[in-house]
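Continuing the series of single-chain predictions for the mutant panel. This is the parent chain; the variants come on the following pages.
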Amino acid sequence: MPKRKTPDPRHRIFIREYLKDKNGARAARAAGFKASSAREIARQLLTRLDIKEKVDRAIDEQAKKCDITAERVIKRIAQIALEKKKVRDSDALKGCELLGKHFKLFTEMQETKVTAAVSVATPEQLKDAFAEAEKKY
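Parent structure:
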């Protein structure tokens, strides 16, 4: 039976530190990676599936402990938008925004348009192309 690779202790430290403020470069430095390459190391670590899953799982656990849900944040935003309170609206909304971002309740979408020429081959053209390719190889 193959041995399971022991996770790098620096990865565990990186995850723990990253969860504090979502600052990857700071977390990489705290985990013992070189300051000069901390930003790139953080990018690499955060694209690794195993680390991303652990970070996502920990964020979900934090949200559950705090009883923060997208529904609660949206309801609070709606309350602030519709009522006047003693709290400055901008401060309360900023707090909701930060909570939503921290718990990844909102995602930003980017629309990309691609223009490309497409040609459709007839069955006869495909047969000819395959026959030509078979002759070459």
